[in-house]
Amino acid sequence: MGKIQNTEIYRNIEQYPQATTLSGIIILHIDGPIYFANSSYLRDRIGRWIDEEEEKLRKSEENSLQYIILDLSAVGIVDTSGISMLEEVNKILGRRDLKLVIANPGAEVMKKLSKSKFTETIGKEWIHLTVAEAVSACDFMLHTAKPDSPEKISGIPEFNNV
């Protein structure tokens, strides 16, 4: 996803080629529930998206990928298989020195993430109300600190919908 100029709106860069992206950050829009029937597919697809982005960055000699933002605005349901998949993706990303960031989780999704302690796993400071807030937080960290820094992100509100 990329940012539409002069807005806080993020859209698919294939549909909106004029949308801009930031080096070091990839935004992935999950367009449906995260549950037992598609969790394996989503895990594999997220991995392929990341591999494709890293390959593009290598060819262009831009900054390396550091943040993966999952836009969950279209996710109405997440079950235990979906939570397990998110935990697995987070571990895989950690081994690759990438940070998982969540944007736009709905109330029900947030309840499940909290109940499973996934919010504690990634840190509440990495869960944001909007994609724009998530991008701002990542961009701030890209220019000031390392992704695993325990330092809180000042000026960016935490998502607290528990």
TrEMBL record:
Domain STAS: 15-138
Membrane topology listed for this record: Multi-pass membrane protein
Cellular location(s): Membrane
Keyword Transmembrane helix: yes
Pfam family, one: STAS
Cellular compartments per GO CC: membrane
Domain of life: Eukaryota
Keywords of the record: Membrane, Sulfate transport, Symport, Transmembrane, Transmembrane helix, Transport
CDD domains found in the cross-reference section: STAS_SulP_like_sulfate_transporter (cd07042)
One annotated GO molecular function: symporter activity
PROSITE patterns per the UniProt record, alphabetical: STAS
Designated name of the protein: STAS domain-containing protein
